[in-house]
From TrEMBL:
Record-given protein name: Ubiquitin-conjugating enzyme E2 variant
Chain ranges of the Lipid desaturase domain: 118-286
Membrane topology: Multi-pass membrane protein
Alphabetical list of InterPro entries matching this protein: Chloroplast_FAD_CarF (IPR052864), Lipid_desat (IPR019547)
Organism: Vigna unguiculata (Cowpea)
Coiled coil: none
Source taxon at top rank: Eukaryota
GO CC aspect terms: membrane
Localisation per UniProt entry: Membrane
PANTHER family hit by this protein: FATTY ACID DESATURASE 4, CHLOROPLASTIC-RELATED (PTHR48140:SF1)
């Protein structure tokens, strides 16, 4: 800024009157002005004009965000083949159980074993879900891809409703095939086959039950809605609590029958403490979720494409 001194001039008038008796000579007035500077004069300040600077807005696009018609959500022939083999394996196991029950005229034990398999499948889904939600990353051997996928699911949970059937189940179908097929071929005990067939079947289809838990009631088949409301399949409201803070409950995704017990008695929190004191590894549920894992809201255009 620049300042210029400013001086004010105060006029000092001296009057000199000449008086004449003649009517032809009027009065004459003589004026003189002198200037006296003042010491307390404020300087004149000239301020430069301020031009507002408009900040640039940089828009970034998450390259990992699932887009409409994403090929990663579509089924391939390999996916369909594994799901077909997995379903065939389950049918062999259940068929052996029914055949053995008919031959031995023993029905109660296989039915009870099947019910136990259904209950334990829900527990198993919760333990596995808790483990991959809290430990490991994309570089973890064997299950790294599933860990990364589940973390992405927390940010974009609605994408599971757009994932095609075989794409959603093929990984579990492959695991079930390798684990169950030898039992289905070489074991002929109807009780064992009843337990294995139902338990592995619920585990294999747990991802589909999971997808239905993210669906809207108006878009789901009436039978699925009825099973959810009856508690046979995990409900939408129960699983929805898992996707809200503190993100450390309601892990079971088959029927959800174990969720209340596990959360009320803090079973997973106790397991986390044991693992922490044994290994020093902190679970992700002990800290605030990373920004890239916080759920994004589904846009209207994405809803219309479903």
């Amino acid at each position: 800024m620049y300042s210029l001194p400013q001086h004010k001039h105060t006029p000092n008038l001296h009057l000199k009157v000449c008086k004449n008796n003649s009517p032809f000579h009027p009065f004459r007035v003589y004026c003189s002005a002198t200037s006296t500077p003042k010491s307390n004069v404020k300087p004149l300040v000239i301020e430069p004009r301020l031009v507002p600077v408009v900040p640039r807005v940089i828009t970034t696009i998450d390259e990992h965000r699932p887009m409409n018609n994403d090929t990663g959500l579509q089924s391939t022939w390999s996916h369909r083949a594994w799901v077909t083999i997995g379903c065939t394996t389950l049918l062999i196991s259940l068929g052996e159980s029914i055949k053995g029950a008919m031959d031995s005229n023993m029905w109660v034990e296989p039915i009870i074993a099947s019910w136990v398999g259904y209950i334990l499948a829900d527990l198993g889904s919760g333990v596995y879900h808790w483990a991959i939600d809290n430990y490991g990353d994309g570089s973890t051997p064997v299950v790294g891809a599933q860990i990364e996928a589940f973390q992405g699911h927390h940010k974009w949970p609605w994408t599971i409703t757009r994932r095609e059937f075989a794409n959603n189940l093929h990984a579990l179908a492959r695991a079930v095939t390798f684990a169950v097929l030898p039992i289905a071929i070489f074991c002929h005990d109807p009780v064992v086959q009843g337990f294995v067939g139902v338990c592995s079947g619920c585990i294999m289809f747990s991802q589909q039950f999971h997808a239905w838990a993210h669906g809207t009631k108006s878009r789901l088949p009436p039978l699925v809605v009825a099973l959810q409301e009856a508690g046979v399949l995990v409900s939408r409201s129960q699983h929805g609590a898992h996707h809200r803070p503190p993100y450390n409950n309601n892990y079971c995704i088959v029927s959800g029958v174990w969720n209340e017990f596990l959360d009320k008695h803090k079973v997973f929190e106790a397991m986390e403490m044991v693992l922490y004191f044994k290994t020093g590894v902190r679970p992700r549920s002990w800290t605030e979720p990373a920004p890239e894992w916080i759920e994004e809201i589904q846009t209207s255009s994405q809803i219309q494409t479903q």
